[in-house]
Amino acid sequence: MTMDRRTVLGLGGAVAAGAILLAPGVRLIAAPNKTEASGAQRWAMLIDVNHCTAACTACTDACRTENNVPLFGDPKRDIHWIRKVEVQDEEGRRPPLSLPVLCNHCEHPPCVHVCPTEASFIRKDGIVLVDKHRCIGCRYCMIACPYKARSLVYFQVDVDKASNPRVPVRGKGVVEKCTFCVHRVDDGQQPACVEACQAAGEGAMLFGDLNDPQSEIAQRVRTLKTETIRADLGLKPHVHYQGL
């Protein structure tokens, strides 16, 4: 089924009504946004790049296992919820840094603003998610994201090979990204990447509630020199880096 640009752009307002008649006998049913999270919390991550080494893949491995994110062997179309990148000092005064890059769960996420169907949304606790029932794969959000943190699912994932039954296997043709392991957070657990980094990695990752002044992450962000990637864009990302 194909739709012209006007139809796509018109979906955003129509979806709010709950269902759209696309063609005789064909309806798009919109799932409601999940907004039951409390606004009293603001989840964030802090990554100390001084303790992150290029050889360590604990965070990326744990993410793939926890969220059923396989590698298909196509470098241009493989999905990466979290990836390791190398940052080089242009003046060569310090060795290259290896740091994890993921969805920054911005306070003002451009991916949410450009989504024509409201598939991309931000919960009250700041976690940015994608409603796969609303997503039409237009990829506007992928273009808007300055962190290259979103991927289109080009290949159907084999349900029988899913490593974690708690996380639904996504369908072909939708956009997905890091969720801060929202299913774990809602159960009072840490994201899989953070748990793995602390247990089997270098202990570089910290996750917590910025709105809690007694939390370790709130204290470290408040007292230590931390930075965010592309802070100049005014998006207020909530993945912070120490030592960058």
Sequence stretches where pLDDT stays below 50 over 5 or more residues: 1-35
CATH class wording of the largest domain: Alpha Beta
Number of E strands: 12
- CATH fold-type name of the largest domain: Alpha-Beta Plaits
Largest sheet: 4 strands, mixed
Termini separation: 47 Å
Output the strand order for the largest sheet: 10-3-12-11
What average pLDDT do the residues reach? 85
Helical coverage, percent range:
10-25%
Oligomeric state of this protein: single chain
User: What is the CA-atom radius of gyration, in angstroms?
Assistant: 19 Å
Percentage of β-strand residues: 15-25%
List the helices and strands in order. HEEEHEEHEEHEEHHEHEE
- How many DSSP helices? 7
- Tell me the domain tally: 2
Q: Note the overall shape.
A: globular
Based on helices, strands and strand pairing, what is the structural class? alpha+beta
Q: CATH architecture of the largest domain, please? A: 2-Layer Sandwich
